Amino acid sequence: MLGCNVVVGISVFDAYRSVCSVLGRLCPRLVPSPLWGYSLSSLARLSPVLAEVMCEDCGGVVGELLGYWKSIPRGGACSVCGALGARDVDEEWVYVVYEGGKPLPRLPDMRDPMSRARYSGEAILLGVRLLCGKCHLSKHQGYARVTGKGREALEHLARVNDVSVGEAERLVKKAFEVWRELSKIDSWKIRVCELPGLREDLRRRTEKFLNEMFGLGYSIFRGWFWYMSKDNVVNVEKMAISETIALLESLSPAENIIKALVNEVGSRLKENNVHVLERELSYALNLQMEDVNKILKAISSPEEHAFTLLAISRLFVGKWMVFAKEEHLNTIIPEIVEKLREERLDYELKTPASRRRGDLYPVMVYVPSYLATSLVSRVGGIVKMVAEELGLRKPIYFKPDVFTEKSIYSGKSTIKPYIYLLK
Ligand SMILES: [Zn+2]
What we know:
Layout: H1 17-20, H2 40-44, H3 48-51, H4 58-71, E1 88-99, E2 102-103, E3 119-131, H5 133-139, H6 141-146, H7 150-161, H8 165-182, E4 188-192, H9 200-216, E5 218-221, E6 224-228, H10 233-249, H11 257-270, E7 274-276, H12 278-287, H13 289-300, H14 305-312, E8 318-324, H15 329-342, E9 348-352, E10 361-367, H16 373-389, E11 396-400, H17 401-405, E12 420-422
Parallel strand pairs: 3-4
Antiparallel strand pairs: 1-2, 1-3, 5-6, 6-9, 7-12, 8-10, 8-11, 9-10, 11-12
Helix pairs in contact: 4-9, 5-7, 7-8, 11-12, 13-14, 15-16
Bound molecules: zinc ion (ZN).
The site of zinc ion has 8 residues, from helix 5.
């Protein structure tokens, strides 16, 4: 592993070299998607109890890391353009691709999914530096685009690197191509280099923490602490799809579809002691009537079958919700994950990442389809069992994502924000 010996932009092993050898002063190295959620800034703000999900000592690491993060001087000159009053701390991550332990000077061809397993990656935090808002935005071209500031970010990037806007545009396009390739790599090692003001023992513990978090499938993304299964996503989605299709196929065409679905789901879940709120379930299905019809149509035409599978794998996503005190998070989350893993049912789970003093944390355990009744009850059963072991005896609730999209929250409308209940 090259680790901290990589030299930004110049090293032949820097995966973004073709872009960064030209955009040397400020380079938009896009973070490969498997590495979203691993940064010092998000780690520093993580609730210490959630950190303990990874290791006993990890709570202490985030506390010390927050101290370090706050100690970085702000308000001085931007390290790229020199603008005064710069307040953003930028983490300079570099990526290297390996095959059989050897760094590769150029990106391999990873079109064949089977051959991808041969490659691994190393994400190296080389430094932190102060940036002004404009430079920071220009570094994150992906974010700039989705927030409608793509042009502004591109022009600034061209200016600070002294290239034409056309040239910057071409290189940013190239950066996105590199990003797409890097995102195909599943296996990553994370390296934290020496940083000014960061004690050596804290540097080492932080690096270990990040690697453990990555290995276990946890991450911190957009304010949430996530678990995402590394092995069973496809398995769980397949189960959800086949169950959903079987349910829809069992309906006779003459019936009122929503009424028939509510009855059928109700009777199937009742067998497993899951209570169905009929009014809320019909409301959710009404909101998704177009989706239901799309699938019914696709089921009847075999040539569209592949489309069906793709379309419904996430159409009817929902989550079981249990409300836990902060001090319970380091038990309830790993317990739920472990019990689900034993049955190969682990999928996605999330809870707010930062400290919410005194508030309860909603722990949300996802199921890809709320119409996959046996999956819904099996996952719910496990969540309920773990909650009870911790003395949490309140009912747990199942909320479909369509309610979240339509802003249906508790107390906001006459419709309750959940469709199933497990007492
Ligand atoms: Zn600047």
